[in-house]
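TA notes, week 10

Several of you asked for a full example with nothing omitted. So below is the full record: structure tokens for the whole chain, then the designed sequence directly under it. When grading your own attempts, check the secondary structure regions first.
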């Protein structure tokens, strides 16, 4: 076996970790943007301006969501190579032997067994559901503001 394969494995894991951190920092940014948009739409005291805030927040949330999806694709792009190198570094017969003695998968494996129940509770699906809920909420509240039926701060207007 080529001695540099361990370095390649380490580099690919580092790249995967970098993309994963980027993904979750964008999710945090999305949460901050949504909090600011909702608070701002209440605080301005003007229905039209609040509606513009909400619709702008919806567009910004969608852009951030597209970056999150790109980060997910970039993060997962090298997974087949990482799996193959992992099999070279730790052959499957050794994996099975360790699995039997530890009663769990060894730490070298890149991916766990997919969940047998509730696969929609995986992170990538939860992110999508939450982002689309934010977007629907922004649009609905924006429409209510344009119709003059949403709550605004009474001390400002």
């Amino acid at each position: 076996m080529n001695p540099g394969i361990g370095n390649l494995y380490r580099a690919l894991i580092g790249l995967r970790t970098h993309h994963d951190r980027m993904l979750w920092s964008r999710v945090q940014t999305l949460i901050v943007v949504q909090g600011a948009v909702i608070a701002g739409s209440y605080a301005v005291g003007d229905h039209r301006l609040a509606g513009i805030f909400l619709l702008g927040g919806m567009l910004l949330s969608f852009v951030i969501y597209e970056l999150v999806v790109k980060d997910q694709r970039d993060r997962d792009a090298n997974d087949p190579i990482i799996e193959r190198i992992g099999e070279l570094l730790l052959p499957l017969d050794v994996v099975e032997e360790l699995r039997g003695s530890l009663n769990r998968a060894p730490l070298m494996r890149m991916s766990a067994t997919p969940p047998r129940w509730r696969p929609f509770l995986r992170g990538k699906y939860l992110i999508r559901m939450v982002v689309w809920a934010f977007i629907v909420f922004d649009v609905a509240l924006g429409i209510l503001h344009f119709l003059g039926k949403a709550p605004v701060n009474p001390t400002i207007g």
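Residues 87 and 138 are 47 Å apart (CA to CA). Use that as a sanity check on your answer.
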